[in-house]
Model the fold of this input.
Amino acid sequence: MIVACHQPNFLPWIGFFYKAWLADLLVLLDDVQFARGFTWVNRNRLKCDQGEFWLTVPVKKKGRGLQKIRDVEVLDEGNWPRRFFQGISQNYTHAPYFAEHRSFFEDLLQTHWSKLIDLNVAAIDYLAGSLGIGKKIILQSSLHIQSQGSELLAKITRETGADVYLAPLVSKKYVDDNLFEQQGITIKFFKFIPPVYPQLWGEFIYNLSVLDLLLNCGGKSLEVIKKFNHLM
Done:
């Protein structure tokens, strides 16, 4: 069995779902530290007529110190769900598959989210299902494993019963091969090439949220991703 790990990003980019498609099991690292600076866990990019625009979920940081991702709370201020929906609907109304997913946006943003992890997992599950990736996704916190670096990843691989750990080629220099080998775990690396596909608003922009691909290519989105990539 092949296992992969990734932080539970908000409306993740395409590479996240390519990894999920390659793996038998994807473990979301919710029991690691939430970055105090820039992070993709509560924000991502989409496209507009001016280039790109950001969707950011406001979260509670003041007085919280270091937080685990699973503990981060959504900050209920400024009617951010309404701004989100306006940003998406104004810029993607003419996308070929916007109408197909409109109810998802409405339901997601009408729900009162207390924890960021719950919002992110709901979005990830929906996006994975829409792409046709029928892979099981679980949270690190459900495994009760806490460690760091390669040791954490090796423990997760062993605890889930997997014998192969999947990682992007760009992370190879950060992975302790010996630690995995000592536990009988094989590491497989993959190279992700961001696909080019039809977009609205002129010049193509790489590495947006997968939502941009899904709204423009619909049911063909996974084939677009697979066409550009291969397992090492």
